[in-house]
Amino acid sequence: MNPAGPERVANLRKLIALGFERFTLNYWHSFNGVDPARLAEEVRPVAEAGKVKISAVSFFGNPLPENEEGEVARESIAHLIDCAPLFGCDIVSGFTCRLPDVPIPENIARFKEVRHPWRSVPPRKTSAWENCPMHGDWYRGSWNLAHNPDAWELMFDAVALDNVGLEWEPCHQMTQLIDPLPQIREWRNRLFHLHGKDATIRRDLIARHGIGRQGVLRLAPHPRFRRLQLNRRYFRIALDRLYRCHRH
């Protein structure tokens, strides 16, 4: 949910009426004139009245570069960490970010330097890093390091803290032809926040065209999903069964 939009409170009420129970408020690049403390005053009463939860607040910027953009991102993330309790949540999420077009292993020293201050963050607050490649790969990219398990191992070795983990979206693994389900067992202690989308791997198209052709790997709503009104009970049961099947 975009917190900078003028209809943010009205949209929150509409989504609650549709049956949504968990919300993330996402900032992109900057606070866009809407300070998190002010935002919390607006949305938390609506969430509490609707008996729903703000599960995380997010800032998607790039704190790694040594420039004005990086400085703004670092200051904004630190401020959002301080403001998270005002929303009734303890998770701040976003991209790990990366030095543009630098291979992932060569980013780790800078990543550790910038993210190491999390050591001073109280254990009750956590950082969850989104696992979206953002059109990058192991060798180049502009936004994120946390693409896949190989990168996660480097990240969590560099920043070995219990309160840092992943904002895990299984479809971001599927678009890399990685089976996401075994990750629940192996990485369950690092899966702090979950996203969910509708996705299908068209292996017939991959076999014919490879993965380089436009449209072969993409996320798109299934036609039936567009017509469905969310069934909260079904979704809760599905997640619970998924976790129980793979936690042992």
Protein architecture, described:
The structure is a single chain. The protein is of the alpha/beta class and 248 residues long. The protein has a single domain (8-199), classed as Divalent-metal-dependent TIM barrel enzymes (TIM Barrel, Alpha-Beta Barrel). The protein is 40% helix and 13% strand. A 6-stranded parallel β-sheet has the order 1-2-3-4-5-6, covered by helices on one side. It is globular and about 50 Å long. Mean pLDDT is 83; it is low at 221-248.
Q: Which terms summarize this structure?
A:
248 residues, 6 strands, globular, alpha/beta, single chain, disordered C terminus
Strand content: 5-15%
Q: How many β-strand stretches? A: 6
**According to CATH, what is the topology?**
TIM Barrel
Number of domains: 1
Query: Strand order across the biggest sheet?
Result: 1-2-3-4-5-6
Describe the sheet with the most strands: 6 strands, parallel
Euclidean distance between termini CA atoms: 34 Å
Could you say which overall geometry the principal axes of the C-alpha atoms support?
globular
CATH level-four homologous superfamily name:
Divalent-metal-dependent TIM barrel enzymes
- The number of helices is 10
Question: Which ranges are low-confidence, i.e. pLDDT below 50, for 5 or more consecutive residues?
Answer: 221-248
Under the CATH scheme, which class? Alpha Beta
Rg, rounded, reads: 18 Å
Helix content: 40-55%
Question: What do the pLDDT scores average to?
Answer: 83
CATH second-level architecture: Alpha-Beta Barrel
* Structural class assignment: alpha/beta
